[in-house]
Protein 1
Amino acid sequence: MSRRTRFSQAAVAVSVIALAAVGCGKSSTDTSSDSKKSSSGYTGKGIGLAYDIGGKGDQSFNDAAFAGFQKAETEFKIGGRDIEPQDGESDADKVQRLEQLAKSGYNPVIGVGFVYAPAVKEVAAKYPKTTFGIIDDEQDKAANIADLVFHEEQSSYLAGVAAAKATKKNHIGFIGGVDIPLIHKFEAGFDQGAKSVNPSIKIESQYLTQTPQEGGFASPDKGKDAAAGQIEKGADVVYHAAGLSGQGVISEAASKKVWAIGVDSDQYAQSSLAKYKDWILGSALKNVGGAVYDLAKSVVDGKPLSGVVRGDLKSGGVGFADSNPKYKAMKDVVAAVDKAKQDIIDGKVTVKTTQ
């Protein structure tokens, strides 16, 4: 049964925790002991989280998931275990990782990223009493699986509007981590948003790799090189949807004193990007942390979510961060982004998911 939910929007801090090698990957945290029992009858050991390529510390996608993981642990007073991926791992490694969490009693067990789809499908069938979540994929259909997906094209549309209003050269850029349909949604929304402001705007576009295994989401050097190329061609606002690789995009934009637009998390607020933050115009948000938290809450409450749970602008599942005071000072840019957001929510604008 498919349910829709409002993704939680409370801000949660991401702490730095030492990594220790465990099993088929690295366990970042293990705060569980015995199974916990809540007033609702929850008896699991806590929340299990398996990270996507790039792992924790990407200041973007995976860190957003970790924030939701921490918030759930704290508020529900449950344990938790999160595990890092390995370089060059196979689907069998992902199966083993999820199975390890489920067998140990963690519930829910969440795979962060579409690469976990085959593993979630296989392991969920073996553990029907455990709730599984997968972020950014909706092909797995089972009573104990929640597909946690988003309208990334909507937040990217807002990024496009911001870029087109902020550029002084009518020349902007998009850098995608991997050339796949999920990232095409980011590009499609960005292009449509930018062209809603200026139909003749010039938009550079580049994908870092063809497959995740080639490092498109985990190589800041690739992001840096791509940004350098687009800036050299004349782009003065560059938007990335490239995970950890985006750190290279942001650092290069800052070094050339042009705007960068971040993704997934509010990258202006990330500590590891602090020296570049003056050049982070904003970020296209995807409330991955809220999705993780809400799935954990549903399980603890005894009413586990299942089916497709999709976040959009109306629910707060996606958005555009306005933390940078320099952005807030651009009244015309802010007004254009706010209007675009309301037009999407009101149904006046439908954002494309493909070019």
Protein 2
Amino acid sequence: MPASRPQRAAVLVLEGAKPLDVGIPAQVFTARESMPYEVRVCGAAPGPVAGGDGLSYLVAHGLDALEWADIVFIPGYRFPDRDDPPQAVIDALTAAHERGARLAAISTGAFALAATGLLDGRRATTHWHYTRALAAKHPLVRVDENVLFVDEGSVLTSAGAASGLDLCLHILRADLGVAASNHAARRLVAAPYRSGGQAQYVPRRVAEPLGERFAATREWALHRLGEPLTLTALARHAAVSPRTFSRRFAEDTGYTPMQWVMRARVDAARELLERSELSIEQIATDVGLGTGANLRTHFRSTLGTTPSAYRRTFTLGE
């Protein structure tokens, strides 16, 4: 949510860190006028850190950055199922969480987070190649291999590198609102939002162009939220049967087509509440929800708040 000072984000680089996993939160949250975060890249100690995939890092900060941070990102690293990170790293992560910082693991960074015990009894995910290893090494963690990311409030986990971007955009949506998240996605040339419930990896027996066709249908629908959007209309645009469309759409997005349309309409309403002074009734009409009462119902069921309260939280210009 909008804050009086920049949020402090630390990116913890462990031995064998994956370059994309490190770069994603560092780039998404880097300080700029539209992004009120301050980022520090750190390691177990200041200095060089041997990375994975032929790269290494020179970090300016040690574990003191975790004492400073409001949110700590733990990028994935090589061979996470072998040894736990140094005890000093585990202790620093635990202390940061006890102090109130959020901990967000990208890909195999979930192993370092699990080593603290903070994932015990909670849902978590990691890269699909390592989900069984995570479950075997940390049996108290409820590993879900069929999602892109899991938000458990103060601890968050994501699958491979691309879903780390999804997690970062999810955090932005919660902290700053839909408009800021969409702006960041456009800057990064990324999809504005993918549900955390979307499957990481779905074996395909259908030619991939069908997936591209569905993506085109989603884009088509986003430009027509104010119009009637039925399952039949969506399937007709994708040139498949409604049954095929429903099945494949749920595999691709984690939502049924009509659930996705409703979420898209609520998100469009969120952005209008953040960026315009339109009335709630007008916004409801513009996004295809009909009436202000209908918008309030779906806002409460989806977000647990009202449009008016949401607008007060994300005031235009903040």
Protein 3
Amino acid sequence: MTEKALRLGTRRSKLAMAQSGQVADAVSQVTGRPVELVEITTYGDTSREHLAQIGGTGVFVTALRDALVRGEVDFAVHSLKDLPTAQPEDLVLAAVPVREDPRDVIVARDARKFTDLPRGARVGTGSPRRMAQLNAYARGHGLDIETVPIRGNVDTRIGYVRSGELDAVVLAAAGMNRIGRIDEVTDFLSVDTVLPAPGQGALAIECAAADAELIAALAELDDPFTRAAVTAERSLLAALEAGCSAPVGALADLLADGQIVKEMRLRGVVGTTDGTALVQLSTTGPVPETHEGAVALGRELAAEMLAQGAAGLMGERAH
């Protein structure tokens, strides 16, 4: 008798289906059970409002979590950067697999790089974080750009460039990789230019806290370094009391000496959307061995950023 299929809850977007499909294959391998995708429509998928207005955090996640709690699906896959920083008690983050490329990328007309964009170039992004950093970089390097708020899936966004409505759009490298369209990217933005969203490029596999057997199986897909990094990044975000809609960037990376990982560096940035004011700091310490250690790293850097005026840059705090 074949074992009952595990039900994986996923959003319906092309990107969500691609990343869920990859996770489904991996889960099938570690459990020996078939995995079926259950498509769930979320508020973030149906609303046409700008993400910052509908409270960025959680709009893509709530419906999936509700399905988990109701037992309609056994586990769910989220883009980690969409997850609110507070974890519900009845659900557990069972695995954070190895992270994809965390960088942001540009798709521009005429295969241009960001620094080659024409004067007055219109650059589309729905993210205040990207706007703040791109505008700050442009200002510091004598570039003249206008950031234009957009939303929609990858096709919609790239369509604005192809139609000539925009000169460039900003997307996440990880998403472009997962849907097999990385060859359309015209420029990879260095993390020194634009720090990604906390958790960008990483996936979160979530299931019911009561399902000990599934938690144990999914744990095989967990990458401890990725988990430590994203935990530090999300702890920074939580300590800044910033919802997803606030312009916060963060990246924890590992500093290695040859093959031996020595330390973790956490960088954080918060700024005004027009890029006129930016607080950007970093801290380096031993690689956190525990969840609490990773959380502490994020909190410490957030405290330093707040001491340097970060709170005043975020405008209205996201509640």
Protein 4
Amino acid sequence: MHRLPAATLVVAALLSPFMPANAADAPREPYGIALEGYPYPYPVNLLPLVNDGEQLRMAYMDVAPANPNGRTVVLLHGRNFPASYWAPVIKVLSDAGYRVVVPDQIGFGKSSKPMGELHFDTLARNTIALLDHLQIQKADIVAHSMGGMLAVRIARAYPDRVAHLVLTAPIGLEDYRLYVPPVPTEKILENEDKLTAEGYRKQLENNYAIKLPSDQITPFIDARFNIKGSAEYPRWLRAFVSSGQMIYREPVAHEIPLITQPTLFIMGADDHNAPGRPNAPEALRPKMGHNAELAQALAAKMPHARAEVIPNTGHLVFLEAPQKYDELVLGFLKQ
């Protein structure tokens, strides 16, 4: 057997998450359930936390600007994405003078996967604990997808800690319990465990209306499916399913009109993502996921909010229309 030099193996491991699937055919060591082996664009730190008596660690990036403007932006990720996908937004904000703090919430990315259930209130407390640890009294929050639901909880529970709120293609603009019957956790575990990488790709492309080349979607699939070879994969899977149950059981739609901080919704016109839609009665499915219209209606009820809809974009709006997205965010944060 021929052995590759150690340096070659290291380079291959670092590059493989960003390669197209057909360029990574050779078997490789699986990622750990805290995405060990999956590179992030900036150094990752760990904050010790205790949630429901369990010792955990919250991963985060803390990116300092070359020319600070004295302000901090916190980026909150979605359910199906590691915090690393914020890389282009981090650079734009950092270049504009913002300190950028990018956590992986507990249960996600490089953070601990808890044994207990996930709750938005707990994730909100963890995020505030991170700000306290970093001695940040007030920050702007830019959130995507599920992170938008968490941002709503933070803005409502800790209003003095949030200056501006940017909700990027957020889910939770409607109460999914009005359409979808409850599904037992064990059933969801079974379905998620059966999902293949190709099935997941189709799920992302269809549910999120992604307007990205196939090779740019591959890292998200790789981040999830290379974990399946880990000895602790069942623990990761239970945490992932718990996050889906959290979205269903803990709606925030009724709280959004109560937000008083300046708020900007940035929506993809083609984004009709609605978690749980396949489990809804067929007659109700078309009523779900009218996200751009929901954002506009909610913004009209809020004292300091507006909604911007970007044409020809889906759920990953900040990657699909980066120039327009960056322009909207930077302009809003300056107000």
